[in-house]
Amino acid sequence: MQQATTAPGLDRSLAERISHETYYQTVFRRFRRHRPGFISLIFLGLMLLLIAVTPLLSPYGPNQITSAFSAMPSAEHWLGTDQVGRDMLTRLMTGSGISLFVALLATVVSTLLGVLLGLAAGYFGGWIDIIIMRVTDIVMSFPYLLLVLVAAAIFGPGMWNIVLILGFVNWPGMARLVRSNVMSLRGVNYVQGSQVAGMPTIYILFKEILPNTIAPVLIYATSVMAQTMLDEAALSFLGMGVQAPTASLGNLLNVAQSYTILETKPWMWLPPGLMTILLVVAVNFIGDALRDAFDPRNLQ
Amino acid sequence: MFERLGYVGPLLDVRNLRTTFSSDWGQKEALDGVSFTVSPREILCIVGESGSGKSVTALSLMGLLPRNGKVLNGEAFFEGRDLLKMKERELDEIRGGDMAMIFQDAISSLNPVFTIGNQLIEAVRAHSSVGRKEAREEALGILQRVGLSEPELVLERYPYALSGGMRQRVMIAMALAGKPKLLIADEPTTALDVTIQAQIMQLLRSLCEETDLSVILITHDIGLVAQMADRVIVMYAGQVVEQSDVQVLFNSPDHPYTQGLMQAVPSIYDDKARRLVAIPGTVPEHYQDIEGCRFASRCAYKVDECDLPQVLSYVASCESQMNFPHCVRCHRAARGELPPYGADERCTPVDVVAQISQAPAAGELKNETKGDTNGRRA
Amino acid sequence: MIRYILKRLLIAIPVLLGITILDYFIMSLAGNPMEMMIGPRITQAAIEERAALLGLDKPILVQYWNWLKEAMQGNFGYSFKQNLAVTRLIGNNVAPTVLLMGLSLVLSMLIAIPAGIYSAVHQYSKTDYAIVTASFIGSSVPSFFLALTMVYFFNLRLGWLPSSGMTTLGTAWSLTDTLRHMVLPVGVMVFSVVGVNIRYIRASMLEIMEQDYLRTAKAKGIGRRRVINKHALRNALLPIITIFGMQIPMLFSGSVVIEQVFSWPGLGLLTMSSILNRDYPLIMGVSLLSAVVVLIANLVTDILYAIVDPTIQYT
Amino acid sequence: MAEERKVLLRVENLRKYYPAHSQGLWPVKEFVKAVDDVSFDIYEGETLGLVGESGSGKSTVGRQLVALEKPDGGSILYRGTDLVKMSDRAIREIRREIQMVFQDPNSSLNPRKHIREILAEPMLHHKLVDKAGLDKALQELLDLVSLPRNTLGRYPYEFSGGQRQRLGIAKALSLQPKLLVLDEPVSALDVSIQAQILNLLRDLQKELKLTYLFIAHGLGAVHYISDRIAVMYLGKIMEVATGTELFCEPRHPYTLALKSADPLPDPARRGGLDIVLEGEVPSAVNPPSGCRFHTRCPYAEASCRTDVPPLVAVSNGDIPHLAACPVWQRQREARQ
What we know:
The complex is a heterotetramer. Chain C contains eleven helices and no strands. By secondary structure, chain C is mostly helical. In chain C, helix 5 (126-138) crosses helix 7 and helix 6 (143-157) runs antiparallel to helix 7. Chain D is built from eleven helices and twelve strands. Chain D has helices spanning 58-65, 88-95, 115-125, 131-144, 161-173, 191-208, 219-225, 243-248, 253-261, 302-306, 326-335; strands spanning 7-19, 31-43, 47-51, 73-78, 81-82, 98-101, 179-183, 211-216, 228-233, 236-242, 312-315, 321-323. The relative contact order of chain D is 0.14. Chains in contact: A-B, A-C, A-D, B-C, B-D, C-D.
């Protein structure tokens, strides 16, 4: 009745390649397509590299006091110096490193806690679930920064305490996420199949369920990390976080509480602020790219 | 069955419909040159497996394709006007009015936060300028027509509070609200139990007989096709592979795929000793690249010639039925080269009528029972 | 419905108790507040006397029990530092915070709801990209840094707006004066939460746009406008309620930082000082209050949910 | 198989009541009676079909056999030992002999694992093979379900629905079970694939001397594969008989209704055959008293509301035909 015309544009070789790639290849291909996310990843990589080589390249130590106090940016001090004469650029780079380190570590702590508790609550249900979920409710019912401040005041500020405190306040969200994922996975055939096959609980939890919650966990972890960076900055800014002389993005900004510095010495507070924004934006974009890349609707 | 189908020209005339979906690696073809017609007051069944393009056909016609879907070309004349050239606004005059559609999954197809009344009255008022009160009256009438016995109550309910069968009846009621000439039913009973399916099918058939309604029934169930269709379109891999009057199709399916489909379905009337004839293999994944017959890789009758493009052509033996020509997209079948189908090993169906007649008639007894309980004789 | 609310309240009680326990015991780890008072003019004996007076010499469990008993009767003790009733201190500071938070909440929702919905409905459009990018950057700015920048520009450079307190010192109270004082803190607060809200609402709306029932609505031929304005929007109420509930604790946290920067005389400022002074009864009072507020917010969210979503059966 | 039929599995008075409200502080008074007093035997080497509409409890029965649900009462005697009473540890070895094939092949394989892992891990855990023999065992498994041998390194998404179901079957077979619970194994598949899987299951049964419990709602498929068929309605068994007997001479009105609702693939015989049941399956929360079917039964009498009809033999052939409807029987006899 009618003539069959040729097929519309389909890249045969690409299709062929795509249909044979592994899950993570697909995810990475999609990640790369998210331009802001991919650029952010490169930016973060470069930053880490710069932070790593700062001690080698910079003529000043981060806490080394030079002769210039509150100096404007110049050839010797590209970003000027602070009131006691420390080189701002060196401090900015080490501070960024510290902030990233604190955020990353705190994220790891909260992710581990959240994943373990979420797995337990979701898989075993019953009393274990009720207790874990009530504790989650309690922690979540605190205005979050208040809890952090109280804890920081009690345990004393300082880098390691901040890692633990920020790690501890962030797990409930992760626990809830993992729990709801586990609860739905518990009803999925391959998990039930493993139960019928008499596989041990540890195996089911860590080899059947956990690998399938990696996507949401990773995505959530990036948002936790971004939030943690902001919180660390705020805490340090309030003087309850990383303590001087150790530099962090937040406590570098501490000096700006004084209106004279705020008004007349922008090189002391503008760069750390902008750096915070850049780093947090990068982490957020990476999270968004991951969300796109892992979206099951996009995956075949 | 034939008499009520006096041919007056097609209600819907679809020509060379091509729809694609954009995917990771470019445009993926879903429909390749689908053409068919629907006559007034007939039931046309589109049968095929998942991915054959039967639902995409319906969605293309209704302008309801998802974001990544696109009709590349083709024409679809509904009472002479091309649906595919219409703007959204023009299409909206026809959608839900002269042409309505119901979907497979009634629970997700009804908005959970509005009452049935709200959604049904909205449908009534979408295509007629009646007031709220009259619309309500009309809605009640339609609910009764689709066999919901307590329409007042149903109007107040939210979708979640209804059973599966009732929801599908409500969907049908919403479709009927615009007094359609054509109803597209996309697997309306796949999610329902068989006894409920029987009820819904009975309802569709009676609607068809009582009003001037044409129905496109999309299904994968060959049994339903036999029970419901006037005419049948068989789809495979985005193409129409065979179309025919239902009697003709079941007596002599010509396309090897159609034959396979009919033999692959086990029936309760089968002789158990008979082995099902399964179609080997699976639907090819990137079928748009296959120039020749798309079924060839699974076909028992394949010859070299099958790698050439195939067209839908008349079956030689069917010239007498020009209104409903029997067409097949298989050059060998069209030339009558394939061995005749019909080595039908099915055992004769045991007649249910006979069984029922052994027992008291259903209605009779129901009354008796009622008398029983009312009169307390026992 | 009443039974449902009662049930939710019953569930809230153990959570509230848990919060007080957690609070109290964490604080007991902190060490003795008496340390703060040690000074040259105070003898050891005086400290002990005072500790006995405050009940700090008793075991922690007894202390907690005493505190709880008093709290049940509405007595939350006296501030160590200021020698005022905790309830009174909180009472004095609550109004400015409520004002700040309330206005910020309303404004952020007024921006986020239309922006999020517009962005979702016009997915992949230029405006969508702009809104999404802006919300990303917006939610990545530390609020205190934004506050500093605002102060720098609008106060120090331009001199347009005041940057601290609720009123100009030494002048009589006037509405315009207070409003001028509110511009910067409210602006910063709104900015720091609106990005997250937009993204949440947009994501929820996108999910709704893919639902089958929107296809049904479209199939009725009621027009795109009505499909979105009626069928999609009504379902978007649920995520909007959720974000509303999530907002309360977020704003509470935010107020600590913002109030500090802008010297806003609210609960945040009180909290900071109580923490710095290890003023136990005051910290307990503030955290209990905030927990109650959060629990009430959750409860209200749940109730609103039950009203909006007919599939939730509150039994 | 007539004379020396050995009972492999005997189910006696099996019950499963779910609380109607899952959460709450107040004690639950209402229960969903998903499975209520169900008894049947499965003989060694046979296929027992279990049909019913949604809510009939047929899947719950299957899930109880493989311990995915804990029965609230009754016993499951496998070769004479009661699985319900045994401790989890003691039961593990026996449990291996009862495996399950699921309805949805897409979700029965872990998408993050390749086929080798999916098939090998349970076998290794149960020490059915050692590392040395693993490859050979895996090849044999693939041969059994007619999949190419080179697929072991692939991931589940690289397979079509039918192939995935073959893998699901291979996974169940890897533990060398005696009894397979097949929970709607072809319902999610395309028609042309269904026949492949049904034939495969029939061949496997012959080859490996398996016993099947085949759960499905499609009458045709059940008839094709089963030796005997049990019909369930609202948690109770209504009728048990061989397929031919069941469909040629149903002794329960519900079976007749099911049969006539099954669309006959013959356009020449349309309509007229139907006795279309009115209404829908009532809620399993507080199900109807007496005979559960009486609310929809065209033949119901007053006694049906009060008396629970027992499942009794209505004919005594080699394989007994059981039905739970004395009323219809009587009516038919009176009519003749």
